[in-house]
Design goal:
Layout (H helix, E strand, L loop, with lengths): L13 H6 L1 E5 L4 H4 L5 H4 L4 H10 L7 H10 L4 E7 L25 H11 L3 E7 L20 H5 L6 H17 L6 E5 L15 H4 L1 H11 L4 E2 L22 E2 L2 E2 L2 E6 L16 H13 L2 E7 L9 H17 L17 E6 L3 E6 L6 E4 L6 E6 L7 E4 L18 E4 L11 E6 L9
Parallel strand pairs: 1-2, 1-9, 2-3, 3-4, 4-5, 8-9
Antiparallel strand pairs: 6-7, 10-11, 11-16, 12-15, 13-16, 14-15
Bound molecules: alpha-D-glucopyranose (GLC).
């Protein structure tokens, strides 16, 4: 399959397209502030004032082994950890900065612990790395920078050397892709070359020298996947915090894409957050994404003590409970060529496994258009109980108490009561034939 945003510079995306579902982990000094991972710039905090979070950083209860088990039980097949967010704080023992986790009272290399724990659970390793660095003295001040309104700081642009920052960036990326074994996915964040504040412009592929960064990454780890935020039009396209309603294509060609979603508006731990997405909404986003050939990266933001927010934990439990019985409808699945019934989503695996996800429970019948003659058996995925279906029979007299059946359709006969499942799924076994999908 040819993808508009992929070429042989990048690793083989097969595992990614099969696994579909990952955990995003946002953790850093911003977790102590507990209100937004962008607070350094939204509250225009100077590095000097931000130092209090460094001094008090001590996630004494963090346990990557427990978090890895939680991810596994939730059905997540890969995980992406913030190694450095825009605040510039390194979660590993870097040689290129003192602004690192091993210089805090916590002392431990969390990237190392994350990789060991998640790899031990058979979960593929992704590393998030911010191109932006509001702490580094050579990162030039622009319209997004915390000190954008500070005349003195803005003057320092005359002495700030972006080249030196890019060397620093490449050295830290080299450390992450050299010292910790195989890394499966590198998640850069983010380019904003289109921005223009008159006194300064945004930073995109030219300012990052993105081609050099991509060459470095693929030289160090030839099988690695990357996302599209180097602004090169290459890599996994990463819509965030909205729900694409159809497969993403570019110039008529399919695109490899991954929706990244937080359970609330922010990514880091946010004690007073409102607008939490329910378990049902999150699960329907996951299903909808896969039905449109996408991956789903669901975020958690451990608190500064190192534990998951109880509201995140309960949602992961609900999704894991569903995945335990229904994940076959998502792994290796993609868009089905068949017309989907209303209030439902199809996914399809190969040419003869069709999965009907029922979003609102109907009265007794769901009509499957275009499936006449193609269905050999149907069952609920959660308990493998048989689901009866009927087809058009010219001999049959349909009375006023029976549903009408179109000649090209199959009608599923469902129980009146919705099964105790967040989103019930009917597994439909298709006869071999022209049911091919393209994921
Ligand atoms: C956006 C947010 C950033 C977050 C990222 C995750 O870039 O600004 O804070 O880490 O999305 O996708």
């Amino acid at each position: 399959m040819k993808y508009a945003n992929w070429n042989n510079e990048l690793g083989n995306p097969e595992w990614f397209l099969h696994d579909r579902f990952g955990m995003f982990i946002h953790f850093g000094l911003f977790s102590l502030a507990a209100r937004h991972e962008w607070l350094m710039t939204t509250e225009q905090i100077s590095p000097e004032d931000y130092q209090k979070y460094f001094e008090h950083f001590n996630p004494e209860l963090i346990d990557m082994k427990t978090l890895a088990k939680t991810a596994k039980e939730t059905g997540m097949k890969y995980a992406v950890l913030t190694t450095k967010h825009h605040e510039g704080f390194a979660l590993w023992d870097t040689d290129y900065s003192d602004y690192k986790i091993t210089n805090t009272q916590f002392k431990r290399d969390l990237v190392q612990e994350f990789i060991e724990a998640f790899r031990a659970e058979g979960i593929k390793i992704g590393l998030y790395h911010s191109l932006i660095d509001w702490h580094h003295e050579d990162f030039t001040i622009d319209g997004l920078h915390p000190q954008r309104d500070d005349e003195e700081y803005r003057k320092s642009n005359n002495t700030r050397k972006m080249e030196a920052y890019l060397d620093y960036l490449k050295n830290q990326v080299t450390e992450l892709l050299t010292n910790y074994g195989k890394v499966d996915y590198f998640w850069f964040d983010f380019s904003y070359g289109h921005r223009d504040w008159e006194w300064s412009k945004g930073k995109g592929k030219n300012e990052w020298k993105s081609e050099e960064i991509l060459d470095l990454v693929t030289k160090l780890q030839p099988d690695i996947l990357v996302n599209d935020r180097l602004d090169l039009g290459l890599g996994v396209v990463t819509p965030e915090q909205y729900q694409p309603e159809k497969p993403l294509v570019k110039d008529g060609q399919p695109v490899i894409w991954e929706a990244c979603q937080a359970m609330k508006p922010t990514w880091g731990y946010d004690r007073d957050a409102k607008d939490w997405k329910s378990s049902e909404v999150l699960l329907k986003m996951l299903i909808e994404t896969v039905s449109n050939n996408g991956n789903f990266l669901l975020n958690v933001g451990p608190n500064a003590k190192g534990e998951l927010d109880k509201r995140e934990e309960s949602r992961l439990n609900d999704i894991g409970d569903w995945m335990k019985r229904n994940s076959k409808s998502l792994y290796g699945a993609g868009q089905s060529p068949f017309t989907v019934p209303k209030d439902c989503r199809y996914t399809q695996v190969g040419s003869n496994k069709l999965y009907l996800h029922i979003y609102s429970w109907p009265l007794r019948h769901i009509h499957l258009q275009g499936l006449a003659g193609r269905v050999q058996y149907a069952q609920f995925l959660h308990d493998h109980s048989q689901v009866f279906f009927r087809e058009f029979d010219p001999e049959e007299v349909i009375t006023s108490t029976e549903t009408h059946i179109d000649e090209d359709s199959v009608v599923l006969e469902l129980p009146i009561e919705k099964p105790e499942v967040l989103v019930p799924v009917v597994e439909i076994f298709l006869k071999d034939g022209e049911n091919e999908i393209k994921i």
